[in-house]
Amino acid sequence: MRQIGRLSVTLIVLLWLVTVQAQQPAAVPTDPVILPPEAQIHHLVVEDFWQTNCFIIAGKNREAIIIDPGDNLVMGTEKLLVDITTGKSRKATAEELARGDGESVEDPHTGKKLLIYGTWRALSRDAERIAKVLDDNKLKLKLIILTHGHIDHIGAVGYLKKKTGAQLLMHAADTRCADGAIPPADDPKVPVYPKDAYTLEGGLPKVDRLLKDGDLVKLDGMVLQVIHTPGHSPGGICLRTIYKNRPLLFSGDTLLYHSLGRTNFRDGSGDQELEFKSIRERLFTLPEETIVLTGHYEMTTIGEEKKNNPFLNPPPIADWLNPPPSGKAP
Length: 330
Known about the structure:
Blueprint: H1 2-23, E1 40-45, E2 53-58, E3 63-67, E4 73-82, E5 89-91, H2 94-97, E6 104-106, E7 113-122, H3 125-136, E8 140-145, H4 157-164, E9 167-171, H5 175-178, E10 209-211, E11 216-219, E12 222-228, E13 237-243, E14 246-252, E15 255-256, E16 259-260, H6 272-283, E17 291-294, E18 300-301, H7 302-308, H8 317-321
Parallel strand pairs: 3-8, 8-9, 9-10, 14-17
Antiparallel strand pairs: 1-2, 2-3, 4-5, 4-7, 6-7, 11-12, 12-13, 13-14, 15-16, 17-18
């Protein structure tokens, strides 16, 4: 009987332990998207009127990723004539060079109407500044990631890729504007994408890896996750990670401090409603304490933008019709 009693007590204890464990909340899996605590983050601002933010992050062995390496730009001497129905382009003649950007001319060979687009030329000033930061900190640039293909975010890519051999990564939907604003003439499947003369002389080097939503970019203990956020551009992306227990988001031009990227491009590539949807469904679902490292100007947080971004949270009409005693509308 004693043995049976001891066995009964043992079974009761085991059953109790199983019950307690079953009632415990399931362990939350560790988020694999993280930067090691020894990671470095460097911030540079491109010294032109666009004021593009460029970020360098480096891992434990000083291997580095650069996000949106822009450069100081001036108007180039080259102009392109673009058939907006096919996207095929050619250089303008001396006579056509005197015409203004966006002006329509007739191709003497085909009779088709062509639009003239001017080009921009990178001065390499910011590319050299970026290279100096890499050298001063003994960093080895391995990856260049573009949040989108607009010219103010890509100016230093050619210089840095040639100097370091780093791989270039971006979303497939924006490669059409990365090689200048003009799609390759031998690819009729690619929609025409002349972006307000957003054409860089020489274009970009070949893209080494095409990114898609949910992809993980891994290097030297660092992990970034791709969030596809179309709207400002078709292939716009954000990159999320965690650094020292604080969530970070590299937002490109999708979400800015109390603002967002413009969508009123002449070619119709921007989509405001899609951008709102991207922000609300893909970014505003992130933790409110997420630090947003924006593509231009000040940094912000998800919580701040959910509460105070005037484009996403316009003041109620009553606030305008019934202003406060100061007499100032919001």
